[in-house]
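Kindly draft a sequence, keeping tokens residue-aligned:
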Amino acid sequence: MDLLTHVLLAYLLTFGIVGFHVQYLAAGALAGGLPDGDALLYPLSRRFPIFRHHGITHSLTGVTILATVGAFIAPHLAPGSVLVYWIVMEAGGISHILADGFTSFAVPPLLPFSEAELHLDADRAINFATLALSIASFYVLLGVERNHVAFAEYLLTVDVLAAIYGGYLALRLAARIQIGRRRARLGGFDHVVPTGNPFVWLLVTERTDGGRRSTSYARYVFGRGIVAGPFHVEGPLEGPAPAGAPRTADEALEWSYPLARHASRVLDRTYHFGEAFREPEGTWTAVWYSLEFTLLGRAAGVRVRFPAGAGAPVVRSGFVRPPNAAV
């Protein structure tokens, strides 16, 4: 989940715990974002994996240490109770863990005692709709309303935002549970992948065997069932550099997959798919794209174009439009 939404959720939670006390709201909101500070520990995490992103700072141990340290420092910055500071910062940190575990991220809440992960797959890791709503919410709370409207109007805004986010999370979780129960009847797919729409989901099966990976997926809409697919693709994880131009779509996919995997970390770390099509001049282009990282009909991915003759393929990563627009 994006940082702004983490901070906003922690702010709303803190408001629910202690009401309107600026120092505690600031502390709780800050604690909601602090676990993502582990991105600054990258050099250390190369030697000590426990400090990796979504490592110890995303555990109960990590957030409790941060809350304890913060609770003793905070009163020196803004008067308040050490105990209350600890409560709101602990709650803010826990909200971060739960929010990340709610999405397609995975977090280890019991580190360093257990590597068991919380991973509900009920929402996108980065959902641009909630990110936009969070940006708008901060603009309203801190820009439009702050010192400009009656306190009662501010309270109403907070209540409305709490209802919106609470209802959204409840809808997402209910939909994830329901589709999980139906999965066996829909073809036995191994994974359920959320999209930006809580009523639209992807059902995915991925297999890796003998140095090759095969992926199948279908698009599912509540009330309509599977509306597209299943689609299938397969390719080698590694392979020799292609020579010449492919003659078929299958050959274009086969040759391009190792190139695409190495060109995009996002592609390699998410469920993905590939399609190939013939250009008007007769050459082939393969498009490999993430099924999880999409925005407005485009997806993080790689386009591999094979020139005519013996030229090297042209590999470009970025946001691509899947040929069949299935995402």
Notes: The chain has a mean pLDDT of 91. Strands lie at 191-194, 200-209, 212-221, 225-236, 272-278, 284-295, 298-306, 314-320.
